[in-house]
Amino acid sequence: MAFGWLETALRTGHKGIMKRRPSVLCIGSVLWDVVGRADCEMVLGNDMPGRIVRQPGGVAMNIAMALNQLDVRSILLSCVGQDASGRDLLQQAAHMGLVTNHIYQSPDLPTDTYMAVEGENGLIGAIADAHSLEAAGERILDPLRNGSLASAENPWPGVVALDGNLTGDMLDTLATSALFAQADFRIAPASPGKATRLRGFCSNPGATLYLNLEEANLLSGCNTTNARDASIKVHEMGVGRVLVTNGANTACDCSSQGPVTARPPPVKVRRVTGAGDRFMAAHIAAELHGLSPDKAIAAALNDTARFISG
């Protein structure tokens, strides 16, 4: 599933589209999503008929899969176990065209898992077991130190999609590491409970944060009620750029150029897991393919709407 604008532009050789396929380094969780969905509204304690699916997931993996669909090469840095789940996950990722040969394969850690229950009224509850990623720590960055992808002398020069499932200490280290001295950081907190882990990037003028309204308020300590105000508050903390979404309401992209807003199209929500990751990937792809800020946020919202309604 790709943007209509991207398909048209690639086919016609639109002037704003890059001719060389860009690459994005995706650092963070690569795991299995186990998601149960019921086609009715649910509340805590309900036992409903529905469908249960097991699919490749995790913030870094979701972003990489979406980028790949949007003609952006995705390179994954993460951890999986040397177990059947890990081998199957790497095989499926490689089959999709993702670059997986730099992923750390742990001999003593299991492959991580995310489990969620969704109803017609959205996410009912979820548990993210990313303990192996946290335990692997900086071992997942070895390809950026040993010259496989980069080194301290030749840091990664492009976009880095960073996942808040990494530990707070590791995120703080990455925010100032020489390995990323030239990087264009694009960062997602992974969940509201992990939003405050991103404070190390609040003094990084080259960082872009992708947040929902709740995450933005947790990070800023404010209680704003709309994406525009929330993005301005986080930007004032020193973050170079902030994109805030607010469900079906107006989203905002705030940078030193001022706020840019757009509203997503109305759709029937059929799935929510991975929606924030899809928005981030779609926005990155839109900009890498030459779209201006106002068109990029609109394109990303339209693509995300198609995703959640599918």
Keywords:
single chain, alpha/beta, UDP-N-acetylmuramoyl-L-alanine:D-glutamate ligase, four-stranded mixed sheet, 10 helices, 32% helix, 25% strand
Short description:
The protein has 10 helices and 14 strands. It is 32% helix and 25% strand.
What does this molecule look like?
There is one protein chain. With 310 residues, this protein is an alpha/beta fold. It has a domain at 9-30 and 57-110 and 137-188 and 264-309: Ribokinase (UDP-N-acetylmuramoyl-L-alanine:D-glutamate ligase). Helices cover 32% and strands 25% of the residues. It has ten helices and 14 strands. Strand 13 (249-255) and strand 14 form a beta hairpin. Residues 7-20 have low confidence and may be disordered.
Low-confidence stretches: 7-20
The neighbouring-strand order within the major sheet is 4-1-9-10-11-12-13-14
Q: Report the top-level CATH class of the domain at 9-30 and 57-110 and 137-188 and 264-309.
A: Alpha Beta
At the fold tier of CATH, the topology name of the domain at 9-30 and 57-110 and 137-188 and 264-309 is UDP-N-acetylmuramoyl-L-alanine:D-glutamate ligase
Characterize the biggest β-sheet. 8 strands, mixed
Number of strands: 14
What is the helical fraction, as a range of percent? 25-40%
Assembly state (oligomeric): single chain
Number of helices: 10
Q: Give the CATH architecture of the domain at 9-30 and 57-110 and 137-188 and 264-309.
A: 3-Layer(aba) Sandwich
CATH H-tier superfamily of the domain at 9-30 and 57-110 and 137-188 and 264-309: Ribokinase
Q: What gross morphology would you assign?
A: globular
Query: Approximately how much beta-strand content do the residues carry?
Result: 25-35%
* Radius of gyration using CA atoms only: 19 Å
Summarize model confidence as the mean pLDDT.
90
Structural class: alpha/beta
